[in-house]
Amino acid sequence: MAVLPVIKIGHPTLRKKADEIDKFDSELNQLASDMIETMQVYNGIGLAGNQVNVLKRIFVIDFGLIDENLSPKSYINPRILSLSGSALREEGCLSIPDVNADVERAARIEVEYQTLDGELVQEELEELAARVFQHELDHLNGVLFIDHLSSLQKKMLEPQLKKLMEANSLV
Ligand code: CO
What per-residue confidence (pLDDT) applies to 170? Predict the structure, then answer.
């Protein structure tokens, strides 16, 4: 296992669309376990491929932070089948350090994804799990949570975001 570097806003990979995964091999298993370790070291509740500079459609969610009896889980080629309701809650992102804002998202979602073995699974998620899934799926499409904010919210965060963008687009 290894802790991977997490890229920050300003890095072009965060704005790219990740590619479908078609090889369910030991390399994918290694990537998933490295991503889980990375997420846990940085105290994130989720982490997407783009954030470790890998443009593949994979993200991990630490369900242990939602319910201590649950383990982290890997989602391959995830997609949303249906959305319902709406909820507002504060979000942050390991790629946008020290920035938090309320984001409105669907409260319940039906999803489909593949496991590390390539098995196709359908699942219903709600509350925090539904929110994290939507946030991480956005990453795979080059979308960040700040894209969902109102113009007033964006205006208030602008100085902070500008600083981060400038610092990170140079590396
Ligand atoms: Co994020």
Answer: 65
Ligand 1 mean position, distance from CA 14 (Å): 9
| Positions marked active-site | 136
Express each pLDDT in 44-67 by its tens digit.
999 999 999 999 999 999 998 888
Residue 20 in tokens: 């479908």
Percent of the chain with pLDDT over 70: 99
- Closest by CA to 28, choosing from 51, 6, 5, 49, is 49
69 is a domain residue: yes
Question: Which CATH number do you get for residue 127?
Answer: 3.90.45.10
Give residue 113 CA to ligand 1 midpoint distance, Å: 19
Measured in angstroms, how far is the CA atom of residue 166 from the centroid of ligand 1?
A: 19
Q: Kindly state whether residue 83 falls inside one of the protein's structural domains.
A: yes
Structural domain total, the chain: 1
The environment of the single-atom ion ligand 1, i.e. residues with CB closer than 5 A, is 93
- Residue 96: which domain range? 12-168
In-domain check, residue 4: no
> If you measure from the C-alpha of residue 22 to the centroid of ligand 1, how many angstroms do you get, rounded to a whole number?
24
Q: Does 81 reside within a domain?
A: yes
